[in-house]
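User: quick one
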Amino acid sequence: MSKDVLVINERVQGENPDLTFELIGKAKEIAGILGGSVGVVVIGDLSGTEAFGAADRIYTVEHDALTSGYSSQVWEEAVLAVVESVQPKLILFGTGTIGIDLAGSIAKRVGGPIASYVIDLAVEGDDVVATSQLYGGKLLAESVLEGDTVVASVIAGSFPSEAGKSGGSPEVVSVSAPSSLGSLSLIPGSVKEPDKTGVDITTSDLLVSVGRGVGSQANIEMLQELADAFKVPLSASRPVIDQGWLPKPHQVGKSGKKVKPKVYLAFGISGAPEHLEGMRSSEMIIACNTDPKAPIFEVAHYGTTLDLFDLVPEILEKLEA
Amino acid sequence: MKVRRIEKGGALKIVVGMRQLADLVEELEVADSGVDIDRDFVKFVSNEWDEAALEEALLIKEAVGGEVVVIALDEPDVDQTLYSAIAKGADRAVKIVGVEEGWTPTRLRAQLLSKWLKSEGDWDAFLTGVQAADDLDGQLAGLIGATLGVPHAAVVSKAEPEGSSLRITQELGGGTLSESVATGKVVLGIQAGRQAPRYAPITRIRQAMSTSTIETFDAQEIDLGPGPKVRKIYPPQSKGQATMLDGDPVEVAEKIVELIRAKGLVR
Ligand SMILES: Cc1cc2nc3c(=O)[nH]c(=O)nc-3n(C[C@H](O)[C@H](O)[C@H](O)COP(=O)(O)OP(=O)(O)OC[C@H]3O[C@@H](n4cnc5c(N)ncnc54)[C@H](O)[C@@H]3O)c2cc1C
Ligand SMILES: Nc1ncnc2c1ncn2[C@@H]1O[C@H](COP(=O)(O)O)[C@@H](O)[C@H]1O
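Assistant: Done. Structure below.
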């Protein structure tokens, strides 16, 4: 067993996610303590690997099944091939689709423990200690990961990405593709770019944003009125979109848009990590949530526990005055 | 696999794994043990993503026929969830009994469900929520897939029947979608159904309670294997980030408008 740390680059196409660099930075720190090296696993699109200069090694797997699209099965087999050849101490995924998809199955297949939703990692003796978010960020769990190979999937924004960006010239190691890629039952198809039509919430200096706390589609009307009064778009958390109360382009977060307005007004949004991922770097966040323990108050600059149904009409009143 | 499906005329047998969770809107206290929440006073509700999985399963059945079976571990108020699934259109409900109360690691959940799935045998797809709020040791879909040696996909927003296959749409983040086609048995973690979960009227739930029975399956001895050893659970140290705005709605509204005005965003 090695003392290496392996980072999985979650890119199917497009740019390398910033999260990969966050993970490389942390991997370097951990590998430094363990006395191992840092490898980055690059699958599919092999362009742009020079960005991973901070790593010691880049592992690639080449196979026809990996040249287009994404299938969890294809990626799992490819990642596992690298893992089996490197036998790392620690495997780092992000909590993106690929991390959610593969971290658990890879851990299960290598017979190691996994911690998800990780926001911090440390080394204690031979073990890795992970701090994870539970219950949408309302609680944290500290757990010890014992074993030859352990797995963590990390929430975006947990570590600075700078430390993962400085350049060297890593060795590129091509791992031979596993024969399992020749007999697939989950066949990759096309990848579709996001729909560019509809409202653009990313360019507004002010956003009025609404969450499930609004209770119903009918109640959205009041928040729409507020957005109209400010002459800005109405944005929303994912459940509002999934309920069909607003169209997808309005969604802020991991699977929606990343926004960075001067002021973000959040009404009835709890502040789940996937939502925060999309708006936490707003210049000023003002949150209205009746639950004083709601995680949104950890990132908000100003907060109120008033009921949104009492507050919003008064803001409207104020604006009309 | 394929042959059998064609024999059934394309109909699919979909199993939906559901579970109960502490309602996040509630105050969650850490138990005296320091490694779990205090379960005595919290309200347990059905995991919202499992409800999305159930909706997707019902849509598949409506399109090609077949059967929807819901399965859950015996957890607080789970009967309500199972009967409501039947009221919405599920054909059978199964409860795994004999599991110790408390926080069930996802890995244990996966192994128990896998035992049942193995014993049942003839299902085509297992759908469950993409995540649950207390997932620490991975997500259920990936763990079940790896346990059974069946391919899986998570963060799925569509699972549409197509001939004898399922066309899977996954969200890769930022609105990018990826498609793949499952030609055999598959395990899916559902992020959102093609439509919001349907609503089961209370009369239908009552009817389900009087006309259907929940099957039971005895939990078996499990060799859990290595998992994370939780040594403490605690609320995040408040960074005291947010300045709370005091006053009645009129006063708070005034302060908010003032903050926005100071940024030059309102006259
Ligand atoms: C892979 C993945 C991707 C995801 N991507 C996204 C994403 O892009 N964007 C996103 O937002 N989520 C995303 N989610 C979902 C995320 O986990 C949360 O479920 C979601 O953010 C919660 O939305 P919410 O805060 O509106 O709802 P809830 O968590 O239900 O919060 C509602 C809040 O409203 C408050 N409230 C209730 N009534 C009132 C009232 N009258 N006045 C004031 N406050 C009130 C409550 O106290 C509560 O805190 C994703 C999840 C997964 C698994
Ligand atoms: N009385 C109700 N209780 C719970 N959910 C409901 C109720 N009425 C509608 N819903 C659900 O709420 C969502 C939005 O409903 P609607 O705004 O009526 O389209 C849908 O998923 C409905 O099934």
